[in-house]
User: What shape does this take?
Amino acid sequence: MEEFYGVQRETAGATPTMIRVIRICRKCGAKIFSDAPEGLCTRCVLKTALVILPDPVVPQERDDPGQPASPVPATTRDGVVPASKKKASRAANMLGQLGDYELLEEVGRGGQGVVYRARQRSLNRIVALKVISLGQWSSTPHLRRFRRDAEAAASLEHPQIVPIYEIGEREGSCYFSMKFVEGGQLDEVLKREPMSTRRAAELLAKVARTVHFAHQHGILHRDIKPGNILLDREGEPHLTDFGLARLLEQESTITHSSDVLGTPSYMSPEQASGHTKELTAAADVYSLGAVFYQMLTGEPPFAGGTTYETIHMVLDSEPRSPRVRNPKLDRELSTICLKCLEKDPKRRYSSALALAEDLEHWLKHEPIQAKPSGFFTHGRKWVRRNPSTTVLVTLLVALAIGLSVTVWNRKPAVLISKSIAVLPFENLSPYPDSAYLADGIQEEILTRLANIADLRVISRTSTRHYESKPRNLGEIGKQLGVANVLEGSVQKIADQVRVNVRLVNAQTDSHLWADTYDRKLTDIFGIESEISKRIAHSLQVKLSGREEQALALKPTNNPEAYDAHLRGLSVEARNYATAYSRDLVGKAAGFYERAVQLDPNFAIAWARLARTDARLYFNDDHTAARREAAKHALENAQKLEPNSPETLLALGYYQYHVLRDYGVATTTFERVKKMLPGGGEVVTALGRVARREGHWDESVTYFEQALTLDPQNVELLVDAAWTYAMRRQFPTALKFYDRALDITPNNVDVIAVKACSYQAQGNLQQAARFLSGIDAHTPVRDTFTAKITQLRLERNYGEAVRLLQARLAPLDSSSELDLRVWLALIQHLAGDTAGAKATAEQVRNTLEAQLYGDQRDVSENLAILSQAYAATGAKDLALKEAERATVLFPSAKDRVVGPSLEENLAFIQMIFGENSRAILTLTRLLQTPYGSWFYRPMPITSALLRLDPIWDPLRADPRFQELCEEKQPPATP
Assistant: This one.
């Protein structure tokens, strides 16, 4: 963001494009940022708008984005009003004028604006004039934000806030003028000489009270740092640059909630993670603490080699005690500073005023309110800093107390008398098209029974593998852990339907009840209701008023709409497997859409439509149209039945799949869980959301709980296995894959993901055995990529290229871009440089024209684009897009996907010789649970680093060799 009085800084700015790479101005040869308009430097842009002369002053290139930058060479001393009017006159002749202002000299610049010392001619006074950098190329949102920020700052009248004089716009340039403080920036003062601890405390107390004043007026500063604290001639502090401020009670439509605003070394973790809508005054308290840390130690609490590395440290590292860097420091001041820097906003000072008062207590030699971290707090932070040691200790404890309790225990569950499994209904109709009735009726009966709290119901995902009329009901009951089994058949003739059902006690194989229902097709829901009521009565289940209503529910009066709904349920049921099929989900969505067109008051169909649209959006259709379709369907369901389990489930999936607001989704799913205590689907959803948040132990617990409710669910078993694999607990993961294969022995998708576990452990021979049957026509992409990964690890480049080309040949050039960039990578490994470049250029051209969608989609496309740029030798662009991807979708936002973007950045860094940074990232990722970009769905491991040729450029480095040889323990959060 903006720097006043001679400091230039590269930061994570208002949009992801603020992460910049230095290039050359095509007009004057000055160094510029890669996203500068028309490829011109700021001076050449302003030359048109401000009528200035050539002969630019080139700003110094920053060495360390996490540290304060070097001053920009000027015609006067650093950041102080010049003594010579003659020199100022020469500067004015160079710069020209802007309206009523004569520009004397440039004193600062940043991502959004340039600051000049100027003379306001009408009042004959010296001012600081801030002009938006893009001049006449400015977009409307930039100008609107610039004016809004200036107006917010101008509304604050306080002796220690730099006052705003005027806000204006001229020839496409937006500007505001403010008081020119005749002194220097705090960071420049700190560079010249150390500051005493007492002086630091006095200074920060005043700044904190100033910040509290702004908070009382509903404004957050959002960019408190030494460069924005000006000291006048008397040494009094003045706070400036509210360019990042936002009215607390006014929701901006200009800055997206995902924007990372602020300066990395001083921004709070919640700000660094992009959660700007959730910012409170605690974010500014954190920044005050970061400034105080630098005043006490001479360094900010976190400063990496790049913006990305600094942000990563802010999010995941604990600050070292100031007393480590300054042993003479008072313990209480260190405690005050560290309280401001707590990761959890609730553990910081409750307000900037509370911080000021505690500093004043210290100055008066009175007891402070802040307390040093206790044993458990230190322990928690130690765990975060020492994950490897923690893992070893945890494993030893787990082995000591938990060997006898394993999640793959095959012992039969304790049978509960009020429990039931509904087996697939047999289709006796002479027409194949009628098979949907059997699936739909079974699913509807299950849905009604699942509403009964006093009854444990096994979901269809566990029963779909059984025959319609099996002979071994007793064994099935034991496998599913239920005391009762319902089996049935459906026969449709013309407009009539016959449904036969039989309820059996699986333990004794005795019939509890059987019946036949002959009805017209228009009364199918009447059959489902009667069967559900009869089951509840036979099992002597207690029913509440709401549950009785749910059993008797008539969801629609339109038979055709209900028929379309049943067809959708049948198609969805076929997609409940280990492999996601966009075609099947899309087909189901089409049936639900048909149902609501026939009956706009069909609430359950609206809820189902919302869920399928949300699932499509989450997996591959990241378009605004799909997002709006999911939202529209959900809103209709909420209008009709806002508190039904079906609507609330749709809401939870919308929050999870579309909004990716995992905390809110968890709250919604927990609410549904109370309504459907026997439903395994809700518990599974909670496990998946917990995994996205990085709550790995909690996720495993949910999956284990879901498996007790749904023990034969292959999809759930694979989910649990994947969670263990991401934590590098491969033996446990393999046991879950084996359980899934016991149920579906020929499931090629499960076989492939099991092979990936062997790849991650370096057992290529075993992996090859499982992958032998996969070819270019294998439907599921992840299953196919497991084969490509195997061939790459075996360095069989020819076969890998052949398979990729065969798969991509019939497809449009804009599809499967990740596979196309993989093709370029393997062509390069095979020595086909020209072919790799041609393939990469095709990917580059496609992506440059279609960077759209939600954050995850854009970030993944940026990662693919970075690889395409790398393959064509465009170093600056490759590094820029790889880093943008990590900032746009950081690990803190999604612990499954986020780290894979860091992995890609390490790969790009390695390609262009930045080996140290790449190795540093790989070292961290080896201790991080996640799903890898290059080895999906496994994480990176020492064995994969050792075997994969893509890391060959690092092989000679002893640090990399150590990573390859070290046997990594299972990762923990």
